[in-house]
Amino acid sequence: MNRHSYVEFFRQTSPYIHAHRGKTFVIALEGDAVSLGNFHSTLHDIALLQSLGIRVVLVHGARPQIDQRLALSGITSDFHDGIRITSAEGMLCVKEAVGSTRLQIESELSMGLPNSPMHGAKIRVLGGNFITAKPVGVRDGVDFQRTGEIRRIDATAIENQLIDGAMVLLSPLGFSPTGETFNLSYQEVAAQTAIALNAEKLILVGRAEGILDGADLVRSLSLSELEDLMTSSPLPQQQLLNSAKQACCHGVDRVHVVGCEIDGGLLTELFTRDGSGTLLMRNHKEVIRPATIDDVGGILNLIGPLEEKEILVKRSRELLETEISRFMVVVHPEGLLLGCAALYPTSEQGSGELACVATHPEFHGQGIASRLFDAIVTNAQQQGLDKLFVLTTQTAHWFIEKGFTEANLSDLPSQKQSLYNYQRKSRIFSRTI
Predict the structure, then answer these.
(1) Among 281, 314, 344, residue at a domain's last position
(2) Strand 405-407 vs strand 24-29: parallel, antiparallel, or unpaired?
Protein backbone atom coordinates (compact mmCIF):
# COMPACT_ATOMS: atom_id res chain seq x y z
CA MET A 1 0.00 0.00 0.00
CA ASN A 2 1.48 3.33 -1.02
CA ARG A 3 1.41 6.37 1.23
CA HIS A 4 -1.61 7.96 -0.43
CA SER A 5 -3.66 4.74 -0.20
CA TYR A 6 -2.69 4.31 3.43
CA VAL A 7 -3.71 7.87 4.33
CA GLU A 8 -6.99 7.55 2.44
CA PHE A 9 -7.75 4.21 4.14
CA PHE A 10 -6.97 5.68 7.55
CA ARG A 11 -9.27 8.62 6.89
CA GLN A 12 -12.07 6.31 5.80
CA THR A 13 -11.84 4.34 9.05
CA SER A 14 -12.00 7.44 11.26
CA PRO A 15 -15.84 7.67 11.34
CA TYR A 16 -15.96 4.10 12.64
CA ILE A 17 -13.27 4.83 15.23
CA HIS A 18 -15.26 7.82 16.48
CA ALA A 19 -18.51 5.84 16.51
CA HIS A 20 -17.04 2.88 18.42
CA ARG A 21 -15.03 4.77 21.05
CA GLY A 22 -16.47 4.34 24.54
CA LYS A 23 -18.90 1.61 23.43
CA THR A 24 -19.07 -1.88 24.95
CA PHE A 25 -18.37 -4.84 22.65
CA VAL A 26 -18.82 -8.43 23.82
CA ILE A 27 -16.61 -10.67 21.68
CA ALA A 28 -17.16 -14.45 21.72
CA LEU A 29 -14.08 -16.36 20.57
CA GLU A 30 -14.70 -19.94 19.47
CA GLY A 31 -12.40 -22.57 20.94
CA ASP A 32 -11.32 -23.61 17.44
CA ALA A 33 -9.88 -20.12 16.92
CA VAL A 34 -7.24 -20.76 19.58
CA SER A 35 -5.70 -23.59 17.58
CA LEU A 36 -5.41 -21.67 14.33
CA GLY A 37 -2.12 -20.30 13.05
CA ASN A 38 -3.39 -16.70 13.09
CA PHE A 39 -4.65 -16.90 16.68
CA HIS A 40 -1.96 -14.37 17.64
CA SER A 41 -3.20 -11.90 15.04
CA THR A 42 -6.82 -12.35 16.15
CA LEU A 43 -5.98 -11.51 19.76
CA HIS A 44 -3.75 -8.63 18.72
CA ASP A 45 -6.68 -7.20 16.73
CA ILE A 46 -8.90 -7.53 19.81
CA ALA A 47 -6.23 -5.74 21.84
CA LEU A 48 -6.21 -2.98 19.21
CA LEU A 49 -9.93 -2.45 19.78
CA GLN A 50 -9.21 -1.93 23.47
CA SER A 51 -6.45 0.54 22.59
CA LEU A 52 -8.91 2.52 20.44
CA GLY A 53 -11.10 3.19 23.46
CA ILE A 54 -13.59 0.34 22.96
CA ARG A 55 -14.64 -1.43 26.16
CA VAL A 56 -14.08 -5.12 25.49
CA VAL A 57 -15.54 -8.16 27.21
CA LEU A 58 -13.92 -11.28 25.73
CA VAL A 59 -15.69 -14.63 26.14
CA HIS A 60 -13.80 -17.73 25.04
CA GLY A 61 -14.97 -21.21 24.14
CA ALA A 62 -13.06 -24.46 24.65
CA ARG A 63 -14.98 -27.27 22.95
CA PRO A 64 -12.05 -28.79 20.97
CA GLN A 65 -9.74 -28.40 23.97
CA ILE A 66 -12.30 -30.21 26.16
CA ASP A 67 -12.66 -32.96 23.55
CA GLN A 68 -8.90 -33.45 23.56
CA ARG A 69 -8.69 -33.68 27.37
CA LEU A 70 -11.59 -36.13 27.51
CA ALA A 71 -9.99 -38.31 24.83
CA LEU A 72 -6.65 -38.37 26.69
CA SER A 73 -8.50 -39.42 29.84
CA GLY A 74 -10.50 -42.09 28.03
CA ILE A 75 -13.82 -40.45 28.92
CA THR A 76 -16.72 -40.52 26.48
CA SER A 77 -18.84 -37.39 26.26
CA ASP A 78 -22.30 -37.44 24.68
CA PHE A 79 -24.34 -34.59 23.23
CA HIS A 80 -28.08 -33.99 23.15
CA ASP A 81 -29.49 -31.24 20.88
CA GLY A 82 -25.96 -29.95 20.45
CA ILE A 83 -25.39 -29.58 24.23
CA ARG A 84 -22.64 -31.54 25.95
CA ILE A 85 -23.65 -33.86 28.78
CA THR A 86 -20.98 -33.23 31.43
CA SER A 87 -20.35 -35.97 33.97
CA ALA A 88 -18.61 -35.39 37.31
CA GLU A 89 -15.38 -36.96 36.05
CA GLY A 90 -15.70 -35.15 32.73
CA MET A 91 -15.99 -31.87 34.65
CA LEU A 92 -12.37 -32.24 35.76
CA CYS A 93 -11.30 -32.29 32.10
CA VAL A 94 -13.53 -29.30 31.38
CA LYS A 95 -11.84 -27.28 34.14
CA GLU A 96 -8.38 -28.23 32.89
CA ALA A 97 -9.20 -27.38 29.26
CA VAL A 98 -10.92 -24.09 30.09
CA GLY A 99 -8.14 -23.07 32.48
CA SER A 100 -5.42 -23.87 29.96
CA THR A 101 -7.21 -21.98 27.18
CA ARG A 102 -7.77 -19.00 29.43
CA LEU A 103 -4.08 -18.88 30.41
CA GLN A 104 -3.10 -19.05 26.75
CA ILE A 105 -5.30 -16.03 25.98
CA GLU A 106 -4.06 -14.06 28.98
CA SER A 107 -0.47 -14.81 28.04
CA GLU A 108 -1.02 -13.57 24.47
CA LEU A 109 -2.67 -10.37 25.71
CA SER A 110 0.25 -9.72 28.06
CA MET A 111 2.84 -9.52 25.28
CA GLY A 112 4.74 -6.28 24.84
CA LEU A 113 7.69 -7.09 22.63
CA PRO A 114 9.16 -4.27 20.54
CA ASN A 115 8.20 -4.40 16.85
CA SER A 116 5.08 -6.43 17.70
CA PRO A 117 1.46 -5.22 17.50
CA MET A 118 1.25 -5.51 21.30
CA HIS A 119 4.19 -3.19 21.97
CA GLY A 120 3.10 -0.53 24.47
CA ALA A 121 -0.46 -1.90 24.76
CA LYS A 122 -0.30 -2.57 28.52
CA ILE A 123 -3.69 -4.27 28.61
CA ARG A 124 -5.01 -5.40 31.97
CA VAL A 125 -7.08 -8.57 31.66
CA LEU A 126 -9.38 -9.29 34.59
CA GLY A 127 -11.87 -12.01 35.39
CA GLY A 128 -13.87 -13.22 38.35
CA ASN A 129 -16.92 -15.09 39.55
CA PHE A 130 -19.24 -12.91 37.48
CA ILE A 131 -21.57 -15.75 36.41
CA THR A 132 -24.04 -17.49 38.68
CA ALA A 133 -25.25 -20.76 37.15
CA LYS A 134 -27.70 -23.56 37.79
CA PRO A 135 -27.93 -27.11 36.41
CA VAL A 136 -29.75 -27.72 33.14
CA GLY A 137 -31.31 -30.72 34.86
CA VAL A 138 -33.27 -33.38 33.02
CA ARG A 139 -34.68 -32.64 29.56
CA ASP A 140 -36.39 -35.15 27.26
CA GLY A 141 -35.44 -37.80 29.79
CA VAL A 142 -31.74 -36.87 29.54
CA ASP A 143 -29.82 -35.84 32.68
CA PHE A 144 -27.26 -33.20 31.69
CA GLN A 145 -25.47 -33.61 35.05
CA ARG A 146 -22.79 -30.89 35.42
CA THR A 147 -23.87 -28.95 32.35
CA GLY A 148 -25.40 -25.69 33.45
CA GLU A 149 -27.27 -22.61 32.29
CA ILE A 150 -26.93 -19.03 33.38
CA ARG A 151 -28.94 -17.76 36.31
CA ARG A 152 -27.41 -14.29 36.61
CA ILE A 153 -24.64 -12.09 35.19
CA ASP A 154 -23.05 -9.66 37.65
CA ALA A 155 -23.25 -6.74 35.23
CA THR A 156 -22.34 -4.15 37.88
CA ALA A 157 -19.06 -5.86 38.72
CA ILE A 158 -18.14 -6.25 35.04
CA GLU A 159 -19.08 -2.62 34.35
CA ASN A 160 -16.82 -1.44 37.18
CA GLN A 161 -13.86 -3.27 35.63
CA LEU A 162 -14.59 -1.76 32.21
CA ILE A 163 -14.85 1.74 33.68
CA ASP A 164 -11.46 1.15 35.28
CA GLY A 165 -9.98 0.47 31.84
CA ALA A 166 -9.59 -3.30 32.03
CA MET A 167 -10.52 -5.94 29.47
CA VAL A 168 -12.81 -8.49 31.08
CA LEU A 169 -12.18 -12.14 30.16
CA LEU A 170 -15.01 -14.62 30.80
CA SER A 171 -14.69 -18.39 30.63
CA PRO A 172 -17.62 -20.76 29.93
CA LEU A 173 -17.92 -21.78 33.58
CA GLY A 174 -20.48 -20.72 36.16
CA PHE A 175 -20.81 -21.23 39.88
CA SER A 176 -23.82 -21.97 42.03
CA PRO A 177 -24.42 -20.37 45.45
CA THR A 178 -23.44 -23.74 46.96
CA GLY A 179 -20.04 -23.68 45.24
CA GLU A 180 -20.69 -26.14 42.42
CA THR A 181 -19.09 -25.51 39.03
CA PHE A 182 -21.06 -25.93 35.81
CA ASN A 183 -20.02 -26.25 32.18
CA LEU A 184 -21.70 -23.52 30.09
CA SER A 185 -22.12 -22.66 26.44
CA TYR A 186 -19.69 -19.85 25.61
CA GLN A 187 -22.20 -18.47 23.10
CA GLU A 188 -24.87 -18.27 25.79
CA VAL A 189 -22.39 -16.58 28.16
CA ALA A 190 -21.59 -14.01 25.47
CA ALA A 191 -25.23 -13.35 24.54
CA GLN A 192 -26.40 -13.03 28.16
CA THR A 193 -23.44 -10.78 29.03
CA ALA A 194 -24.16 -8.50 26.06
CA ILE A 195 -27.80 -8.26 27.16
CA ALA A 196 -26.90 -7.59 30.81
CA LEU A 197 -24.43 -4.85 29.86
CA ASN A 198 -26.71 -3.36 27.19
CA ALA A 199 -23.70 -3.73 24.89
CA GLU A 200 -23.45 -1.92 21.58
CA LYS A 201 -22.37 -5.10 19.80
CA LEU A 202 -22.11 -8.85 20.23
CA ILE A 203 -19.39 -10.25 17.97
CA LEU A 204 -19.22 -14.01 17.38
CA VAL A 205 -15.78 -14.99 16.07
CA GLY A 206 -15.21 -18.52 14.77
CA ARG A 207 -14.18 -20.64 11.82
CA ALA A 208 -17.33 -19.79 9.88
CA GLU A 209 -16.76 -16.66 7.75
CA GLY A 210 -20.31 -15.57 8.57
CA ILE A 211 -23.84 -16.83 8.14
CA LEU A 212 -24.28 -18.95 5.03
CA ASP A 213 -27.39 -19.49 2.94
CA GLY A 214 -26.36 -22.68 1.22
CA ALA A 215 -22.87 -21.84 -0.07
CA ASP A 216 -23.44 -18.07 -0.20
CA LEU A 217 -22.31 -15.65 2.50
CA VAL A 218 -25.18 -13.50 3.81
CA ARG A 219 -23.86 -9.97 4.36
CA SER A 220 -26.74 -8.65 6.46
CA LEU A 221 -29.87 -10.01 8.12
CA SER A 222 -32.91 -8.60 9.86
CA LEU A 223 -34.66 -10.48 12.65
CA SER A 224 -37.42 -11.64 10.32
CA GLU A 225 -34.90 -12.91 7.77
CA LEU A 226 -32.99 -14.64 10.56
CA GLU A 227 -36.13 -16.61 11.52
CA ASP A 228 -36.54 -17.86 7.96
CA LEU A 229 -32.90 -18.95 7.73
CA MET A 230 -32.84 -20.81 11.05
CA THR A 231 -35.15 -23.59 9.83
CA SER A 232 -32.85 -24.55 6.95
CA SER A 233 -29.49 -24.14 8.72
CA PRO A 234 -27.27 -26.96 10.04
CA LEU A 235 -27.09 -27.29 13.84
CA PRO A 236 -23.85 -25.29 14.43
CA GLN A 237 -25.24 -22.35 12.45
CA GLN A 238 -28.60 -22.68 14.22
CA GLN A 239 -26.77 -22.25 17.53
CA LEU A 240 -25.04 -19.12 16.19
CA LEU A 241 -28.32 -17.71 14.93
CA ASN A 242 -30.08 -18.53 18.19
CA SER A 243 -27.46 -16.60 20.19
CA ALA A 244 -27.75 -13.68 17.76
CA LYS A 245 -31.55 -13.73 17.95
CA GLN A 246 -31.49 -13.88 21.74
CA ALA A 247 -29.22 -10.83 21.93
CA CYS A 248 -31.14 -8.80 19.32
CA CYS A 249 -34.50 -9.53 20.91
CA HIS A 250 -33.26 -8.30 24.29
CA GLY A 251 -31.74 -4.95 23.40
CA VAL A 252 -28.45 -5.54 21.54
CA ASP A 253 -28.75 -3.55 18.31
CA ARG A 254 -26.09 -5.33 16.27
CA VAL A 255 -24.60 -8.81 16.19
CA HIS A 256 -21.65 -9.63 13.94
CA VAL A 257 -20.62 -13.13 12.86
CA VAL A 258 -16.99 -13.00 11.73
CA GLY A 259 -14.51 -15.58 10.47
CA CYS A 260 -11.17 -15.85 12.25
CA GLU A 261 -9.37 -17.78 9.50
CA ILE A 262 -9.18 -14.66 7.32
CA ASP A 263 -6.40 -12.44 8.63
CA GLY A 264 -7.83 -9.10 9.76
CA GLY A 265 -11.43 -10.24 9.33
CA LEU A 266 -12.52 -8.69 12.64
CA LEU A 267 -11.05 -5.27 11.81
CA THR A 268 -12.46 -5.38 8.28
CA GLU A 269 -15.92 -6.12 9.67
CA LEU A 270 -15.86 -3.28 12.17
CA PHE A 271 -13.98 -0.54 10.30
CA THR A 272 -15.09 -0.82 6.67
CA ARG A 273 -18.44 -0.28 5.01
CA ASP A 274 -18.65 -3.70 3.34
CA GLY A 275 -17.28 -5.70 6.28
CA SER A 276 -16.12 -9.31 6.04
CA GLY A 277 -18.83 -11.38 7.71
CA THR A 278 -22.53 -11.11 8.54
CA LEU A 279 -24.25 -8.26 10.34
CA LEU A 280 -27.54 -8.97 12.09
CA MET A 281 -29.61 -5.96 13.11
CA ARG A 282 -32.79 -5.28 15.00
CA ASN A 283 -33.39 -2.34 12.67
CA HIS A 284 -32.19 -3.51 9.26
CA LYS A 285 -32.98 -0.36 7.29
CA GLU A 286 -31.42 3.07 7.30
CA VAL A 287 -33.13 5.72 9.42
CA ILE A 288 -34.40 9.07 8.11
CA ARG A 289 -34.70 11.60 10.91
CA PRO A 290 -34.34 15.31 11.76
CA ALA A 291 -30.72 16.36 12.10
CA THR A 292 -29.20 17.24 15.47
CA ILE A 293 -26.18 19.31 16.43
CA ASP A 294 -24.17 16.05 16.58
CA ASP A 295 -24.73 15.61 12.83
CA VAL A 296 -23.01 18.87 11.85
CA GLY A 297 -19.63 17.23 11.26
CA GLY A 298 -21.14 14.46 9.14
CA ILE A 299 -23.14 16.93 7.05
CA LEU A 300 -20.03 19.05 6.42
CA ASN A 301 -18.24 15.92 5.20
CA LEU A 302 -21.12 15.21 2.80
CA ILE A 303 -21.49 18.69 1.35
CA GLY A 304 -17.81 19.73 1.41
CA PRO A 305 -16.82 18.05 -1.91
CA LEU A 306 -19.98 19.42 -3.59
CA GLU A 307 -19.18 22.93 -2.34
CA GLU A 308 -15.67 22.69 -3.77
CA LYS A 309 -17.19 21.85 -7.17
CA GLU A 310 -19.63 24.77 -6.71
CA ILE A 311 -22.59 22.40 -6.97
CA LEU A 312 -23.76 23.61 -3.56
CA VAL A 313 -23.49 27.05 -1.98
CA LYS A 314 -20.79 27.03 0.70
CA ARG A 315 -22.00 26.92 4.31
CA SER A 316 -19.78 27.55 7.31
CA ARG A 317 -19.93 25.36 10.38
CA GLU A 318 -21.37 28.29 12.33
CA LEU A 319 -24.17 28.82 9.81
CA LEU A 320 -24.91 25.10 9.67
CA GLU A 321 -25.14 24.92 13.46
CA THR A 322 -27.73 27.71 13.51
CA GLU A 323 -29.74 26.09 10.68
CA ILE A 324 -29.44 22.46 11.78
CA SER A 325 -33.16 22.29 12.65
CA ARG A 326 -33.90 22.75 8.93
CA PHE A 327 -32.06 19.55 7.95
CA MET A 328 -33.06 15.93 7.69
CA VAL A 329 -30.48 13.14 7.44
CA VAL A 330 -30.31 9.50 6.37
CA VAL A 331 -28.31 7.32 8.77
CA HIS A 332 -26.91 3.87 8.00
CA PRO A 333 -27.63 1.16 10.62
CA GLU A 334 -23.93 1.36 11.51
CA GLY A 335 -24.21 5.10 12.21
CA LEU A 336 -22.69 6.49 8.99
CA LEU A 337 -24.42 9.57 7.58
CA LEU A 338 -25.61 8.66 4.07
CA GLY A 339 -27.47 11.79 2.99
CA CYS A 340 -28.90 15.16 3.95
CA ALA A 341 -31.36 17.77 2.72
CA ALA A 342 -32.79 21.00 4.10
CA LEU A 343 -36.20 22.65 3.99
CA TYR A 344 -36.45 26.44 4.43
CA PRO A 345 -40.01 27.80 4.72
CA THR A 346 -40.20 31.30 3.25
CA SER A 347 -41.93 34.41 4.53
CA GLU A 348 -44.60 33.95 1.89
CA GLN A 349 -47.30 31.59 3.06
CA GLY A 350 -47.36 28.09 1.64
CA SER A 351 -43.93 27.88 -0.02
CA GLY A 352 -40.53 26.56 0.97
CA GLU A 353 -37.05 26.03 -0.50
CA LEU A 354 -35.53 22.58 -0.86
CA ALA A 355 -31.76 22.94 -0.50
CA CYS A 356 -28.48 21.18 0.21
CA VAL A 357 -29.45 17.74 -1.13
CA ALA A 358 -26.40 15.46 -0.88
CA THR A 359 -25.67 11.74 -0.62
CA HIS A 360 -22.55 9.83 0.33
CA PRO A 361 -20.54 9.11 -2.87
CA GLU A 362 -20.22 5.40 -2.05
CA PHE A 363 -24.03 5.06 -1.88
CA HIS A 364 -25.06 6.74 -5.13
CA GLY A 365 -27.70 4.89 -7.14
CA GLN A 366 -29.37 3.28 -4.12
CA GLY A 367 -32.40 5.58 -3.96
CA ILE A 368 -31.27 7.40 -0.82
CA ALA A 369 -31.90 10.89 -2.22
CA SER A 370 -35.36 9.85 -3.42
CA ARG A 371 -36.36 8.49 0.00
CA LEU A 372 -34.98 11.63 1.62
CA PHE A 373 -36.96 13.79 -0.81
CA ASP A 374 -40.17 11.94 0.09
CA ALA A 375 -39.46 12.61 3.78
CA ILE A 376 -38.89 16.32 3.05
CA VAL A 377 -42.21 16.51 1.16
CA THR A 378 -44.02 14.90 4.08
CA ASN A 379 -42.35 17.37 6.46
CA ALA A 380 -43.33 20.31 4.23
CA GLN A 381 -46.94 19.18 4.10
CA GLN A 382 -47.01 18.84 7.87
CA GLN A 383 -45.87 22.47 8.08
CA GLY A 384 -48.76 23.54 5.84
CA LEU A 385 -46.65 24.15 2.73
CA ASP A 386 -48.10 23.38 -0.69
CA LYS A 387 -45.22 24.44 -2.96
CA LEU A 388 -41.48 23.76 -3.12
CA PHE A 389 -38.85 25.52 -5.19
CA VAL A 390 -35.19 24.74 -5.72
CA LEU A 391 -32.18 26.51 -7.24
CA THR A 392 -29.63 24.25 -8.94
CA THR A 393 -26.69 24.50 -11.32
CA GLN A 394 -25.96 20.85 -12.21
CA THR A 395 -28.78 18.56 -11.04
CA ALA A 396 -31.74 19.87 -13.02
CA HIS A 397 -32.63 16.49 -14.53
CA TRP A 398 -32.98 14.85 -11.10
CA PHE A 399 -35.44 17.51 -9.97
CA ILE A 400 -37.38 17.26 -13.24
CA GLU A 401 -37.71 13.51 -12.58
CA LYS A 402 -39.19 14.40 -9.21
CA GLY A 403 -41.95 16.45 -10.81
CA PHE A 404 -40.38 19.91 -10.73
CA THR A 405 -40.90 22.30 -13.64
CA GLU A 406 -38.67 25.17 -14.65
CA ALA A 407 -39.68 28.60 -13.32
CA ASN A 408 -38.58 32.20 -13.64
CA LEU A 409 -36.91 34.49 -11.15
CA SER A 410 -40.20 36.37 -10.82
CA ASP A 411 -41.85 33.14 -9.61
CA LEU A 412 -39.64 33.07 -6.51
CA PRO A 413 -40.82 34.58 -3.24
CA SER A 414 -39.82 38.26 -3.11
CA GLN A 415 -37.38 37.61 -0.26
CA LYS A 416 -35.56 34.98 -2.33
CA GLN A 417 -35.54 37.15 -5.46
CA SER A 418 -33.48 39.81 -3.67
CA LEU A 419 -30.91 37.19 -2.64
CA TYR A 420 -30.53 35.57 -6.07
CA ASN A 421 -26.87 35.17 -7.07
CA TYR A 422 -26.54 36.18 -10.72
CA GLN A 423 -22.93 34.92 -10.90
CA ARG A 424 -24.00 31.33 -10.14
CA LYS A 425 -26.78 31.50 -12.74
CA SER A 426 -28.78 28.83 -10.92
CA ARG A 427 -31.78 27.40 -12.73
CA ILE A 428 -35.05 27.72 -10.84
CA PHE A 429 -37.58 24.90 -10.49
CA SER A 430 -40.82 24.61 -8.56
CA ARG A 431 -43.37 21.94 -7.75
CA THR A 432 -46.77 21.81 -6.09
CA ILE A 433 -46.96 19.20 -3.31
Answers:
(1) 281
(2) unpaired
User: What is the value of pTM for the model shown?
Assistant: 0.70
Residues β-bridged to residue 259? 206
SS3 track for 343-408: EEECCCCCEEEEEEEEECHHHCCCCHHHHHHHHHHHHHHHCCCCEEEEEECCCHHHHHHCCCEEEC
Tens digits of residue pLDDT in 221-262 = 877 778 778 888 888 888 889 899 899 888 898 899 999 888
* Among candidate residues 383, 433, 432, the one with its CA nearest the CA of residue 407: 432
Determine whether 13 is exposed, middle or buried from the number of CB atoms within 10 Å of its CB (0-12, 13-18, 19+): middle
- Verify that 291 and 277 share a domain, yes or no: no
CATH number at residue 129: 3.40.1160.10
Distance between first and last Cα of the chain = 51
The Cα–Cα gap between 131 and 323 comes to 50
